[in-house]
Structure of Tryptophan-rich sensory protein:
Amino acid sequence: MNYKQLSISLAISLGIGGLSGLITMIGMESFKNANKPPLTPDFLFPIVLTILLWLLIILMIKWVTFAAYLNIGLAECRSGIEI
């Protein structure tokens, strides 16, 4: 597995995510004023979103590792794998 490409892609993904978070920080006021279910605390959304994003990163690493194990390119992996 090419760790250099993996680390570059993770850095780009996390960098874009962090940058978009900084840019849209103003949107948190809109989120606080949004119509939400009564038992949804405001602090829960960022925690759940962070967990989901880390799960997606883990899934991407597993996907790349599986594609490397099968010795196929990612383009072939995207179109579906028939085992």
User: Anything to note?
Assistant: Residues 17 and 52 are 13 Å apart (CA to CA). The mean pLDDT is 77. The first helix runs from residue 3 to 23.
